[in-house]
Amino acid sequence: MSLWSVLSSPGWGPGSVLLILVLLLRLSVHIWHKFYLWDLQHCSTDLTGKTAVVTGANTSNCPNREGIGKAVSQELARRGARVILACRSRERGQQALAEIQAASKSNRVLLGEVDMSSMASIRSFAQRLLQECPEIHLLVNNAAVCGFPTTLTPEGLDLTFATNYTGPFLLTNLLQGALQRAGSARVVNVSSFRQSHGYIDEDHLIGAGRPLTFNQNYDCSKLLLASFTGKLAQRLQGTGVTVNSVDPGIVYTRIMKEFSWSYRFLYWLLSFFFKDSKQGAVPVLYLSLAKELDGISGKHFSSSCVITLPPEAAQDPHVAQSLWNTSVRLTNLDKVD
Ligand SMILES: NC(=O)c1ccc[n+]([C@@H]2O[C@H](COP(=O)([O-])OP(=O)(O)OC[C@H]3O[C@@H](n4cnc5c(N)ncnc54)[C@H](OP(=O)(O)O)[C@@H]3O)[C@@H](O)[C@H]2O)c1
Fold it and tell me: Which of 109, 122, 259, 308 is the most exposed place for a label (fewest CB within 10 A)?
């Protein structure tokens, strides 16, 4: 069959229009990413002598679908930071360590094992970390899960809330001394645009509370993270430590690995229009590196690196105080010397 007969076949007309439309849409997404995302290459921040901790920084066992945490860690290492990859899987963590060392040509990348859904694991990780690193300049709370139904951990916390909210709450508080000792430090909470679909009910933390629709526990956990960001920023005023949260945008990673095959298929189908992990890392790196954010704290940033208001529930100071008190009680933080 000649090329001409293929092009003039009846099916080619609408097919070609659709193909052209898809390619044009993809091109506009590409141009948008190129011109509207913060320009990482023009940021001169040097991290030599600084220490950064990134949770969920491992590889994914799935080529071309690295997580955002690994891409963030690689850039921090490239800029000279000592980077601690805080991962729950030693195997995936070691693989990430080797790949980041090779790509960044840095021998200052270390692996720390921590399960962010376990308070005991976080406590022992923090203890080991503080012995090694008395000063921490950057903490990126990146690890998260989604797609799990209400599931209790052996410590009586809901798995999704424990990983996405209670864990970061505990870890950040345990590392607060080291962050303050650094003189100037940043905490970056990786949130999600999904936070606007959540609501705050503290009982969700222990697997109880008002009913949740499918995957709404993820949305609610990210909303709690926004409330925590505001409250922590207020508490840290004048200490030299800032805390902000950011939505990386829609990124093609392994975040939907717990979803049914139909959701994963749709995610794969649309992935052509999504960011890859390097692009998804840019907003997180903006909050970690940009000099213009010195002293900016308690803010939420959109995936275009613009300050936006978090949902109303996360701005309520009474809600934030109550959530803080409950989180302190649940994590036994009040019992730490
Ligand atoms: N992808 C998106 O479209 C999107 C959109 C908005 C926000 N986000 C946020 O971006 C962040 C990174 O997500 P991602 O897209 O890069 O997803 P990902 O590829 O699934 O990465 C999540 C990372 O968290 C780790 N993790 C999960 N549970 C953990 C635990 N209990 N302890 C320690 N580490 C744990 C995972 O490790 P394992 O390999 O061991 O599971 C993995 O390294 C998350 O906070 C997510 O909510 C993502």
Answer: 308
Number of compact structural domains in the chain: 1
The answer to whether position 41 is within a domain reads no
- Is the CB of residue 96 below 6 angstroms from any atom belonging to ligand 1? no
By alpha-carbon position, which residue is closest to atom 14 of ligand 1? 67
Q: Which of 16, 144, 162, 165 is nearest to 86 (CA)?
A: 144
Protein residue closest via CA to atom 47 of ligand 1 = 144
117 in ligand 1 pocket by Cβ < 6 Å?
A: yes
Q: What residues form DSSP beta bridges with 246?
A: 190, 301
Query: Does residue 218 carry a catalytic annotation?
Result: yes
Range of the domain at 228: 46-335
Q: What is the pLDDT of residues 104-138, one digit of tens each?
A: 999 999 999 999 999 999 999 999 999 999 999 99
Catalytic residue (choose from 165, 218, 252, 286): 218
Distance from C-alpha of 109 to C-alpha of 82, rounded to nearest angstrom: 6
Q: What is the CATH number of the domain that holds 134?
A: 3.40.50.720
In a domain, 209, yes or no: yes
pTM of the model: 0.92
